[in-house]
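Final report, Chapter 2: Outcomes

The project's central promise was a pipeline that accepts a single protein chain and returns its three-dimensional structure in a standardized token representation, suitable for archiving and comparison. That pipeline is now operational. To close this chapter, we reproduce one record exactly as it appears in the project archive, with the input sequence first and the structure output second.
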Amino acid sequence: NVLHILNLVVGSWILLMGMFLFVTRRHTYIHLTYFTTAAWILGYGFVHSAVDQKIALIWCKVVYAAVIFIAPTMYHFVVVFWKFKEQKRYVLMSYFISFIFLWTLFYTPYFIEGVRKFSWGYHPTVNPYLHLIFLLFFSFVYGRGILNLFRIYTKQKQEASTLEALRTRYFLLVYSISLLGSIDYLQDYGLAKFYPLGFLFPG
């Protein structure tokens, strides 16, 4: 499957970028977003190629262990890099709540209920109630990061900080486009049967 191979290639590339940023930009914490994104994309590559349900379910939990932390790591990077010092406590709160979701993922059946078999491979089936709560949390934290970027971009434009504004606009655009990766949730709820294309919008 060409899409399956492309999935693994994209995930591997993001992982390498994350390792590079860990070495060169560790103080910004941007590498955390790359690592969680790479784990999400590579993990789904292993889910879709799993030979049985048991192995697929294990990889599904690995995938969601990464997905749970995508929004907090993105928010963390924005707060640190653009110096929103008054929001550091909210970063800690977002991580704390993420660990609660992580606990429900591995120690209860209330986050992922099982796996569903499609023509292209397995995919997780989520509990609609707890997962909707998670989606609200994800949207709030990620949206707060986007809002911070928009605020700082508007301020930089007013101050005629051209280069700074261009850099912020780039991150604002990239993180906004990355939201298209949420298309994978359609398969989680059994609302679509096509191959998950979220890996094409990794940010």
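Archive annotation: The longest helix spans residues 128-158.
This record, like all others produced under the grant, will remain available to the consortium after the project formally closes.
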